[in-house]
Structures are given as structure tokens and as C-alpha cells.
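Running co-folding for magnesium ion.
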Amino acid sequence: MPTATAPADPLATPVARLPGVGPERAFQLDRLELRTVGDLLLHRPRRHEDRRQFRPIAQLEKGEAALTRGRIVAQGVKRFARGRTSVFEIILDDGSARLHCRWWNLPFMERYFAVGDDVLVFGKPLSLRPRTMDHPETEVVVNDAEGQLHLNRIVPVYPLTEGLPQRWMRGLLWRVTHNFAAGVPEPQPTPPGLPSRADAIRLLHLPERLEDIEIARQRLALDEFVELQLAMQKRRRAWEARATALPCSGTNLLMRSFLERLPFKLTTAQTKVLREIRADLGARHPMRRLLQGDVGAGKTVVAACAALMAIESGRSVALMDPTDILAEQHYSTFRRWLEPLGIEVHLLTGSRKTTSNRKTKPSQPQSPPLFIGTHALLEENFAPENLGLVIIDEQHKFGVAQRERLLRKGRYPHLLVMTATPIPRTLGLTLYGDLDVSVIDQLPAGRGRLRTHVRTADTVPKVITFIREQLAQGRQAYVVYPRVDDEKLAAGVKAVTVETEKLRTALAPFRVGALHGRLKAAEKESVMAAFRANELQVLVTTTVIEVGVDVANATVMLIENAEQFGLAQLHQLRGRIGRGTHDSHCILLSNADTPEAHERLKVLAETNDGFKVAEADLLLRGPGELLGRDQSGLPNLRFGDLARDLALVEQARALASQCIATPTPV
Ligand code: ADP
Ligand code: MG
């Protein structure tokens, strides 16, 4: 137990010290992670209710959430199905009409109400004849000393936990705000036009005008963003202070012959990005750069050029990929590109370690090697000599911690992270604010058109005919089934297996193969190799091919149950086609019966621009879904909204830079 003296910081006062908070209540608050006064002050209301006026019951609209008020004229519990189902109902009357409020299978609700009670109700009527709401939020009006706190004003409604009444919580927050909000310190100089943090907290819990609520949210969100930006900028500063870069900008000795042998010319965008990278690799501090480029923009060859620069400068390079399939693909591409230049390429995945033994080789002077691998590169036994450059492909599939871990394999190596998920700016600044950004904003010329079609499942026979036509012209196709969740893995694999059999029959004599996460690495590799060699014309698969896979002759992608994917993910998937000179077609089959789901998919039919797709996805599904559940770098924000707060994030970035530039006392 801590000592009984009050802590120096009033905000650190444990909740149990507050008048009216006994052990039972303290325990309940703890379940909400509310342990100190400071925690309480930041307990964000779920919503606010304007209790200065109520919607008369007669004016309630079906399906529209509204606040109303009435007296209980009758109440009771009914049971059905031999007592297994029950419904508790109260009937309210406000003089204009009656309202039935029902709770299913919560018979104990009866205890909280009595005929004659004056009750506030918030909910959506599900019908108007009779006027009925199921499971509305309610609060019985009590005319005690605190009564005015809960009526005739804008009232916060807080998240609760079992046993905690809303009225009690509101009373507590009211007292705590009055007694402690003034003591909330200002984390940085208050920007003009904004309330102080203390005022924002007061407005959050005791708003006088409806506008106050958003003003308070924005101010508190700004503080959250400033904190994140400060942490990022400090991390970068510390890194720069400690780290002197290894010169890695190369000699051009290998580069020239590499570019000459390449079967294509770099695009203007690729060249521009390479110039930025070369400047970084020769600068005083190690490079920390994010390379963004839409699917198929040609990031791999840029990575190869960066690797060459480091290798020319006598440093080894590590390239990390999120999947075995992608690592294998890169291994074969980079061997094709770099081995003729006398550069060794090694592959390290969970299942395979392909390392030629240099010690037994003749002692001719050799270039340092390139290591390609998956998470296996993070393991301890991977200890490259003289690591000059770390490249991480599909960066959004890794967390910041993994990135740092790979960097620690060298002495401040340069870092290039790449991503095809176009990150909307708000997210980019928040997740990658410590990185410089290069963008490949141009696709290589001569690509065929990629069109996306949204179809309902009953068109499958037509789609199959279409695929046959494409195969007959020598093209190849992917057929994709929804992401297989761990717990549903078996079912998902079955779907792939069963559908593969069906497609074999439907598409004979074309050859159909199956590829999914449950296959052993060697099997995956041989299926992928067969598809690449066009020994298989059709690949039935899951999202294992989502990132990176590059087979230019594949021009058709059929995605089943497309409504189950996020837009950004579908965009990534369709990025597997449209990589050659032939026109490509992505067909999204959806059984979604809601117009919203259909509208959502139509975004893809309307644009091939990954940024637009990502923006739409961010708004529709939020940052967690956009980045995928593998993303571990997402901050926990209470007030900030990464989908909408771009202006605040930018302001926070500027404020953080100011703070760092002018070290203030305190
Ligand atoms: P991503 O940016 O999605 O990683 P890749 O690097 O896999 O894209 O490139 C897609 C395809 O485009 C590859 O087959 C690659 O060889 C090819 N490519 C890259 N740059 C060019 C270019 N400048 N001209 C023509 N083809 C290119
Ligand atoms: Mg790629």
C-alpha cells in the first residue's frame, strides 16, 4: 500500500480517495481503467444529450434516434416459450402519445422502474404503431440535490461497466471536473484561438453550447497528436545525434551495367526517387525513407538500385518481405538481376536457408552480399557483416518494433521502407512521421488497361465463359477466396480445395492449381513456380497472394465474396493483374444484398487510383481495417480520429517541431 500522504500531483490522486467512491465503486472504475483523477478527467463521454428540450412522443420518427420523456403508466414482464424468453415492457405517456419500451430477456430490469416514474428515453423507434423502442437507454428523473445536473442542460453520457449507474458516474465527473480541471497543466503553449487543455476538459464534461463538444474534442485530439509527433521527432533527433551514416551512395561501377541489361528503361518517377535515395545514402545521417508507389509502379527495381549503391560502397544489404511467396519471388528476381554482376544473393525464410558458403570460395575480391528473407531475418542467428542498408517491402505488414530490430543488426544502417498501400496523409504523418517520403507517381508505360467489374453471384456461368476466352488467348487467371481467419482456416482451405475441383471441371483442359497458407513452403513454391511458368493457367487462392506477386501474363482476377474484403485490400489484390501489355479484368463477385456494400465495391470499378481507394476505405472502415490487423503501429487515440483529423495532425506536427526547436524550461 502507498503511504497515506496525498500525492504531490492532484491529478495522480487515486479514485478511491475521492468522497463518495468506496471500494466497490473503485473496483468498477478500475474495470474501465479509471484509476486516478487524471484518468477520470479524460474519460470521454460516449455522446452528449441535449436535455433542454425533448421530442414529444407523438413526433418520434421510425428509425430515427431521439430523446424523449414521459411518465410510466404501466409496466410488466411477459414470458414465452415455456419461460425461456421474456420481455420486460414499460409504457410511457407524455400527454402527446404513448411509447412502449421493451427489453428482451432482461427480466430484472423491472427492479429499476415503478409506475409513476418520470423517465428520459433515448433510442430509435422500430415501429410507430404502436410506438415501440427495443432496448433504449433510459434514466429515471430524481429530484434530489443533484437533480439539476442531469436535466435542463447538455448532459454527457459516459461509457459504463456492469453495476455503475449513469447518474452516479455523471455526478462523480461533475465534482471531479469542478475540483480538479483547473489544475490540468498546459502541455505546450496554447495555440491562438483554442481553449486551454483545462478549459477543453471542462467543456468536454460540462458543455454549455453544442459547439463546445467538438471544440473540446479537437483540442484534446491535438494534444494527442502533438504527443505522438513529439515522440517521433525526438526519436529521429536522437537517432541523428547518435548516428553518423556509412557512405553508401555507390560508385556507379555496377549500376551502369545493371541498367544496361535491364529489359526496360526506368520511368521518370523511378529516376527521380533514385536521385533522392542516392542523396540520402551519401548524407551525414542515415537514410530513413518511405517509398510509396501504387501496385505495379515498379518499386522492386528501385530497391535493387538502392541495394546496388550500398553494395558498390562495400556494404551488405538486407531485404525483408512479409511472406514466403514474396521472398521467393524477390530471391529469383534479384538473382537474375544481380548474380551476373558477381553479387551473391541469399535467401532466409522460416523454411529455407539458401546460403552459398563463401569461405570455401576462391579468394577473389567479391562484392558484399544481398540477403533476402522473411521475419526469419529478425532472428538472432542472422548476423550480417557490415550491414549498410535495410530494405523493408510492404512495410505496413510489419510493426515499428520489427523495423528497429532489423536495423540493430548493423551500426546505423540506412533504411528504405516500401509500401503499396497508399497511406492517406493523416495516417502517413502519424505512422511514418519520422520518415522522409518519396512517391513513384507514375506507372511504367505500355501497360494494358485494367478494368474492374462488380457482379452478383448468379453471373458465374458468364464469368467462367469469359475466363475460358481469356485462357484460350494464352492469358492466365487468379481466382481468390476471402481471407481465411485462423479459426476458420479449415473451412477456408476447404473452400479453396472444393472450388479448385469444380473449376478444374469447368475450365478443362486448362490446368488449375491451388495455393493457400496451409501448404508447406515447398509446395507453395512449386505451385507458384508452375503458375509463373504457365504450366498452370489458373491459380485458385486466398489473400496469400495479396502482396507483391508479379506474373505479367495473368490478366484476369475473379474475387469471390468480394464484400468481405476491405477496399484497399481488394485494390492490392487486383494489383496482381494489369502488369503486362494485355488488357486486364478484375471481376468482383458479391452476394451483398445491401446497397451500401454494392456502393462500396463500385468505388473500385470507378477508379484505379490507390490513393482514392484508400481514402474511401479509411472513411468507411477506419484506420485499423485499412491497414489490416497485422499493423501493430497504430496509436491508441481517445479523441483523435485518423480518418478525419488531417488538419489537426498537420498542426500538431508544426507544434512539435517548434517545441523541439525551442527547448523551453520546465
Ligand atoms: P510494385 O511497385 O507493385 O512492387 P513491381 O516492382 O513488382 O511493382 O513492378 C511491377 C512490374 O513492372 C515488374 O514486372 C517490373 O519488372 C516491371 N517494371 C518495373 N519498372 C518498369 C519500367 N520502368 N518499365 C517497364 N516495366 C517495369
Ligand atoms: Mg512490390
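Result summary
Confidence is low (pLDDT under 50) at residues 356-364.
DSSP finds 18 helices and 23 strands in the chain.
Job closed.
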